[in-house]
Amino acid sequence: MASLSLKNVCKKYPNGFEAVKDFNLEVEDKEFIIFVGPSGCGKSTTLRMIAGLEEISSGELSIDGRVVNDVEPKDRDIAMVFQNYALYPHMTVFDNMAFGLKLRKVPKDEIKKKVEEAAKILDLEKLLDRKPKALSGGQRQRVAMGRAIVRNPKVFLMDEPLSNLDAKLRVQMRSEISALHHRLGATIIYVTHDQTEAMTLGTRIVVLKDGVIQQVDSPIKLYNEPDNLFVAGFIGSPQMNFVDAQCVVEGDKVTLKFDKFSAVLPPAKAKKLIDGGYAGKTVILGIRPEDISDSQIEVETFKSSLIEADVTGYELLGAEVLLYFQIGGANFTAKVDSRTPARMGDHVRFAFDPSKIHVFDKETELTIT
Ligand code: ATP
To answer: What PROSITE patterns does the entry give (predicted)?
Structure first.
């Protein structure tokens, strides 16, 4: 397995469009790296440059310390798994998995050993004689994985490998891929636009927007400490609530006021706003739906951040329920315990712990605290 380094990598397509701008990333051995971001942000382009399927316009790509910009895809020791599996319909599972090795003139005995090993890892042993059309979507996906595994590559690249599967199978395959990563001790780079997939699989996540890296961090750090408004809104579901707020400073006390409501910031957060010169300015207040509560205890505890509003939407998820409401024209969502008595149309008192507040600069959209 291997390390990988991208230095100032850019991709400019022949039509002049810059799909990837100054991409810098060091991937360590055995990492599970996720590229995540909205459609068109440059995830696949970056992955394809690593695979060698797309030329790098400028910058440097190294695998295990060796610059590979001009190395042919087949000589990069990388295996790619695509979303459409790309299996050969006329070949059996065994032959599909063996195909790449046969091309490389690997001896027959060795091919058999490697395919059988991979089939065991992927629980495909009983299906080796079947053709792809006699397999389920999840089984086909496992064959596509198997084809990559038998090559024992330095790096696995996966481009939305689960996007063709139904919701239930996706969840199942997600945990299978995670287990596979541990079993193989492989370096994996995985593209998805699904943030749940990103959060559950990645050791580190690269969040991309318009070809530019927004943040590279562990899932928990991205969730708790997003660097900017975009990352804050992209990571977490339902997305973080945002509202314009007035920053009112009285001595050491900082209050964020929005509509007829206000929240007093804890000292550490207050200091960041005072030091940053935000007194009297408009900032963006962010609070996650799961950090807003309608429980009596929280409402009593966090009196300084009380919100009263009419519930305009009610969505039962199971253990939790989403309550929708509006404040001064801004839409809010609260994710609360489904035992709540609150229903559509009710006037409800909500509160949140002010230490859970995120504050962003309105112009730069960078995180203040
Ligand atoms: P998705 O999630 O929709 O697959 P992505 O993040 O993988 O999106 P890319 O496929 O990397 O996005 O594309 C990045 C940008 O580059 C897009 O705006 C796309 O239209 C553009 N692009 C892709 N291929 C070409 C090309 N051959 N010529 C010009 N522009 C291209």
So the answer is: ABC_TRANSPORTER_1, ABC_TRANSPORTER_2
pLDDT for res 1: 57
Omega of the bond prior to 238 within 30 degrees of 0, cis? yes
Residues in the chain predicted with pLDDT less than 50, given as ranges, are none
Sign of CA dihedral 84, 86, 89, 91: negative
Residues whose CB falls within 8 Å of the CB of residue 105, separated by 6 or more in sequence, listed in order? none
Ligand 1 neighbourhood includes 55 CB (under 6 angstroms):
no
Cβ of 307 closer than 6 Å to ligand 1, yes or no, is no
CA of 54 relative to ligand 1 center, distance in Å: 12
Quote the pTM value. 0.92
Report d(CA 228, CA 368) in Å as an integer: 9
Q: What is the pLDDT of residues 160-184, one digit of tens each?
A: 988 877 888 788 888 888 988 988 8
> What are 40's two structure tokens?
């068109």
What is the structure's pLDDT at 137? 84
Complex ipTM:
0.97
Helix 108-121 and helix 137-149, axial crossing angle in degrees, nearest 10: 130
User: Which residue out of 10, 15, 44 has the highest number of ligand 1 atoms within 8 Å of its CB and is therefore the one to mutate?
Assistant: 44
Q: Does ligand 1 have an atom closer than 6 angstroms to the CB of 65?
A: no
Q: Long-range CB contacts (< 8 A, 24+ apart) of 8-15?
A: 8/58, 8/59, 8/60, 9/46, 9/49, 9/56, 9/58, 9/59, 9/60, 9/61, 10/56, 10/57, 10/58, 10/59, 11/42, 11/45, 11/46, 11/49, 11/54, 11/56, 11/57, 11/211, 12/57
CA of 111 to the centre of ligand 1 (A): 36
**63 strand-pairing partners:** 4, 66
Q: Residues, the chain, total? A: 369
Rg (CA), the chain: 25
Evaluate the CA torsion angle 104, 105, 108, 113 in order and state its sign: negative
Segment 217-241, tens digit of pLDDT: 999 999 999 999 999 999 999 999 9
Closest CA to 354 of 264, 279, 247: 264
Show the domains of the chain with their CATH numbers: 4-234 (3.40.50.300), 241-296+306-361 (2.40.50.140)
